[in-house]
Amino acid sequence: MTVAGDRPGDRSPATGPAPVGAIVIGLAGTVLVAMAAMDGAALLRRDGGPWPVPFPDVPSFGTDSPLPVAFAYFAGLVLLVRAWLGLRRARPAVGTTIAVAALWGLPLLFGPPIGSRDAYSYVAQGEIARSDLPAYDSAADDLPPGPVRDAVDPLWLEVPAPYGPA
């Protein structure tokens, strides 16, 4: 016997509050992802890489190996997916879902960019424009040595802006 809401494509209305378990699991997942991002950036920083901003005293995995950092990152993502599925099953009101998503996103505001160093390339593009270098002919490598230039992925260090003036 099928109950309303169990069939694929059933768009029944919101049924109640978000389950506390899903909220806690999602928060734990984003905390793990944020910790992994901070530790990963700290690993890169010790090697002369990005995220020149000093970290506050945050919990750390305390290792020089990237393996625990990668494990924590993916474990956090698994927890977050599980929490989203639990939240979907409960079908809370839209406002509740937005509030829970904001809560889960909060830990990510305190760490470096996650999963890509492209953000540092964009900062370098801004620095190029600010320093009156020709924006469409200059690359991050043309900047003076420093934290902005050092944070750019070596793959993009000598590449000028791929975007046209429009």
Can you put this structure into words, describing what you see?
It is built from 5 helices and no strands. The chain is elongated and about 55 Å long. Helix content is 49%, strand content 0%. α1 packs antiparallel against α2 (66-90) and α1 (20-46) packs parallel to α3 (94-105). It has helices spanning 20-46, 66-90, 94-105, 118-130, 147-151. It has 166 residues and is an all-alpha fold.
Q: What secondary-structure arrangement, pairings included, does this model have?
A:
Blueprint: H1 20-46, H2 66-90, H3 94-105, H4 118-130, H5 147-151
Helix pairs in contact: 1-2, 1-3
Mean pLDDT: 77
Which radius of gyration do the C-alpha atoms yield?
21 Å
The total count of helices amounts to: 5
Instruction: Give the DSSP E fraction (strand runs of 2 or more residues).
Output: under 5%
Shape annotation? elongated
Helical/strand content category:
mainly alpha
Q: Count of DSSP E strands? A: 0
List segments where confidence is low: pLDDT < 50 over at least 5 consecutive residues: 1-5, 42-59
Largest sheet: none
- What oligomeric arrangement do these chains adopt? single chain
The first-to-last residue Cα distance is 59 Å
Query: In which range does the helix fraction lie?
Result: 40-55%
Order of helices and strands: HHHHH
